[in-house]
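Quarterly update from the structural biology core.
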Amino acid sequence: SYQELFPTEWYSYDHSQDSPKPLGLSLGILAVAVGQALLYFYLHKYGYLSLGKTPRSIQSKGARDYLFDEGLTTHLSQPEGFVLLALYLSLTWMLRLMPESYYSFEGGIQFRETFASLVIQDGLQYIMHRLEHVVSPEFYQRSHKPHHRFTNPRLFDAFNGSLADTICMILIPLYSTALLVRTCNVWSYMAFGSLYANWLTLIHSEYVFPWDGIFRRLGFGTPADHHVHHKFFKFNYGHLFMWFDQLGGTYRNPRDFAPRAFNENV
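Predicted structure, tokenized:
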């Protein structure tokens, strides 16, 4: 257990008098990094990036060509992506801006809190996403438009946008979610962060995944669902879940655009 791996003073924390310990923050960032590494290993091994077999592309004109090393470097080096996210996590953690429970190592992953965080984050992100599109043309051009230059996105375009876009659509919902789900412990926060970052990356994939059919029946977001938004701009504002689009009347099934824009059975 963590108690055998780390000295007590590394994780023991009294919110009323102690400064936050960086162990939880470091493990959280590591959890996201490990999740991304496993994700890339799977996608690389099974040919979903540049090697091996070529799976079915989502859009009928085919997937964009790129080199794996170039895509990975671009993905990880965007200042508005993981750099800004790591800064946000560090500041909110070390400045004691998170609810007290987030600093606790007691217990294991709380699945209810983790799932609630994913749903609330996506609901708030849906609202912010729609606002970015409609508040004003100038605000859209400065914030979200840079991400929309990818009308046929690839996996590594997930965090390629602008600083304003990341702040409005990711960081504000992230902090709001933490304030709403106030009973998470550090393990649940790690699980949420890793799932969120990897899922957000996956929905930008240019290829169909084996689990997409099951996900769509459950209303979970798939790459094809998100490609609808990048291609047509005014549908499918959700990311992890399509529930908010279904409630808001903005959901469109990717198969409705086949075969002209999308391939069949995506």
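The mean pLDDT is 92.
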